[in-house]
Amino acid sequence: MADKTSLRLKYKKLREELSEESIEAMSLQIANQALKLPIWNKTYYHIFLPILEKKEVNTEYLLHILQGKDKSIVISKANFDSGEMKHFLLQENTVLKTSKYGIPEPVSGIEIMPEIIEVVFVPLLAYDTSGNRVGYGKGFYDRFLAKCNKNTILVGLSFFKPEPKIPFETTDIPLNFCITSEKIVNFENCHLSL
């Protein structure tokens, strides 16, 4: 079983090798796959805005789907001093500013509490066949997801297949689904024993 540090290096390198064209094509396929998920009867959806330099999944396509379905879209602003994120409703007049870490963030807005968010699209570097994920290691999403309702649906987005097994701590919160450009990986059955 690979450790988290080596997994981060492996997947950062794999992402670096992707062309912009393939990122756009796969991101569009991921958004189309998302339409097959049983998640569209909710109201509050949290989505991450991609860090372009890190070649993350472009969530713009998913954003258009959410807007087309008239959903309440929630985006975050990270505080690197406290390690916490605040969450804001994305509105037509929301001003976005790219932070020094390359993250597009809302300048201000209506704050939304994590407890009312029903679906979270989760960024990740790697994930395994049980829905455990590896992020960048700062713990922003672990702390955020811990505050969400236990019924919140967590959907990872990835360009790659799952690892067989990655290390996880008891504080790690597993995903319900992960969407790749080719398929939806469903972890629901993995967690029935938890």
TrEMBL record:
Sorted UniProt keywords: ATP-binding, Coiled coil, Ligase, Magnesium, Metal-binding, Nucleotide-binding
Enzyme class, spelled out: ligase
Gene Ontology terms: biological process: folic acid-containing compound biosynthetic process; tetrahydrofolate interconversion
CC cofactor: Mg(2+)
Protein EC: 6.3.3.2
Transmembrane segments annotated in the record for this chain: none
Record SUPFAM superfamilies: NagB/RpiA/CoA transferase-like (SSF100950)
Catalyses which reaction(s): (6S)-5-formyl-5,6,7,8-tetrahydrofolate + ATP = (6R)-5,10-methenyltetrahydrofolate + ADP + phosphate
Molecular function GO labels: 5-formyltetrahydrofolate cyclo-ligase activity; ATP binding; metal ion binding
Coiled coil spans: 4-31
Binding site for substrate: 51, 56
Pfam family, one: 5-FTHF_cyc-lig
UniProt xrefs under InterPro entries: FTHF_cligase, FTHF_cligase-like_sf, NagB/RpiA_transferase-like
Residues that bind ATP: 4-8, 133-141
Leader sequence segment: none
Family annotation (PANTHER family): ATPASE INHIBITOR/5-FORMYLTETRAHYDROFOLATE CYCLO-LIGASE, CHROMOSOME UNDETERMINED SCAFFOLD_24, WHOLE GENOME SHOTGUN SEQUENCE
Family: Belongs to the 5-formyltetrahydrofolate cyclo-ligase family.
Protein name: 5-formyltetrahydrofolate cyclo-ligase
Organism of provenance: Aequorivita flava
Lineage per the UniProt record: Bacteria, Pseudomonadati, Bacteroidota, Flavobacteriia, Flavobacteriales
